Amino acid sequence: MSAPGYPWAGHASARSRLLEAAIATVSALGYEIVTVEMIVDVAGVGEGDFERSFADKDECCRRAFEDVCDHFDRHLLPVYARTAPAPAKIRAAAYACADYCREYQQRARYGLQVRSRYGRTSRAEQSLKFHLGQMDSLRDEDTAHRIPAAAAELSVGFFAGHAIRLDASGRLGELRASIPSLLYSVYNVYLGRSAAERLLQDEEIRGSQQLPNRSI
Amino acid sequence: MEHLTAAAEIGVGSFYSLCSGKEDCLLALYDDAVSEARSAIASAVGERAESSWPEQTCVGLRVLLDWVAEQPLQARIVFIEIQTAGGEALRRYTATLDSAAEFLALGRKIAQPSSRRLPESLEQTTVSGIAWLLHRYLSLGKAASAPELFEDLAELVLEPYLGEDQAREAVSQVLLAPPR
Fold first, then answer.
1. Record: contact A161-B125, CB cut-off 8 A
2. Other Cβ atoms closer than 10 A to A208
C-alpha cells in the first residue's frame, strides 16, 4: 500500500491522513499486524508527523475509532431528528445504518474490528448510549411491562452482531438485505410478535414494489 | 508474548514448542472454552433428552448464562477476545454461533400455524443479539448478573415460534422444575 493511491493523499492534514491510514490498514489487515510504519507509509507523511500527533499505535487507533463513532453518529442523526412515529424512525435508521456499511465499508469494518479494544472509551460509550436511547424510543407505556430491561442493548446487538457475521464472510455491504429480518426481531422485543409479523409483511410488499426509501 | 510467558512461568522456547504464536494460543483457548460450555449444555440438555424443544432451549440458555457467570475469563475469550484475533478466529466464532442457530431453527417444526411469517435469518439474528449482549455484560464487568437475563431472553427466543403465552408458560415450567 502506498499513499498516492489513497483519496486523502495531498489534501488533508497529516493527523487526518494518519487516522484514515489507520482505518484503511487495520480494516484490511487486522490490528495486530499493522505497525506504525505501515500507517505512516499509507498516510504518506513523515514519522515526525506521527510522533507529533500520537504517542503510539494504540492512541492513533483509539482516535481513529472515536472518529468513526463521530462519523457514524452524524450519519444517523438526521434520521433520528425527524418527526415521525418511533417504529418508522427506527426502520429508517436501520436502512441508514445498512447504507453506511455499504458506502463507508472500511470505516464500518474498522469500527467492528476494534470495538472490543476501544468500546469502553468514554466517546464509544457516549455513542452507544445515544443509539440505545433512540432504540428505546420504541418503548410504549401500554406494553412497558413486557419489554425486557435489556431490550435496547439486545436490539442494537441484533444489528451489530449480524454485521460482525457478515463482515467475517466479506459481505458487510449486503446488510441492507437483512434489515427486514433484523427489524422483525427488534419489533418482536418491543411491540410483540403480531407487530413484527405485520412489519415483515409490509417490508415484503415494499420490497416487491421498490427498494425501501432511505427516508421515512 | 512477554506477558504470556511470564504469567505461565515458561520460557519463550517452551511457548513456541506448544503454540506457533499468540493467535494460535488464543484459538486453542477458544476451542477449549467453547468445548467446556458445550459439554455443560449438552450434559444438562441430555438429562432431558425426552423433553420438548422449548424446554431443551430454555435449559441450554440457562446453563450458558450460568457458565458466563461462573467462568467469566473463559467467557471473555469466547465472546470478546476471539473477535480481535483475525480471520480464522472470526470464522470459528461465527461457526459456533451458526451451530446454536441451527438448534434454534428446530423450533420451526413446532411453530404455531400463525408463525409462518418467520424471517429466514431469524435464528442467526437471535443468536447474534444474545452474543452481543453477553459481550456487553462481560465488557462492563457484569458477568455475575448474566443469569438474571434468563427469563427475558428465553421468552424472546421462544415467542416467535410459540407466541407470547406459550413461551411464558414454557419458561415458567423450567423455572419451577427442580434441577436434575
1. yes
2. 7
CA end-to-end span of chain A: 40
CA B9 to chain CA mean position, Å: 31
Give the CB-side neighbour count of residue A111, counting CA atoms within 13 A.
24
Q: A156 and B117 in contact by Cβ < 8 A?
A: no
Helix ranges restricted to H, A36-104:
36-43, 47-53, 57-81, 86-103
What pLDDT digit, counting tens, does each position of B53-74 carry?
999 999 999 999 999 999 999 9
Model pLDDT, residue A1: 47
CA A25, A30, A33, A34 torsion-angle sign: positive
HSE-CB of A199 using CA atoms within 13 angstroms: 23
Q: Is A208 helix (H, G, I), strand (E, B) or coil?
A: helix
Compute the C-alpha angle A29/A35/A39, nearest 5°.
80
ipTM, interface predicted TM-score of the complex:
0.82
In chain B, residues 135-164 whose CB comes closer than 8 Å to chain A? 135-136, 139-140, 149, 152-153, 156, 159-160, 163-164
Give pLDDT, residue A11.
54
Is the Cβ of A188 closer than 8 Å to some Cβ of chain B? yes
Which residues of chain B does A117 touch, with a Cβ-Cβ cutoff of 8 Å?
84
pLDDT in tens, B136-150: 999 999 999 999 999
d(CA A104, CA A106): 6
Collect all residues of chain B within an 8 Å Cβ-Cβ radius of residue A150. Answer: 133, 149, 152
Contact assignment for A162 to B125 by CB distance below 8 Å? yes
Tell me if A117 sits within 8 A of A31, measured CB to CB: yes
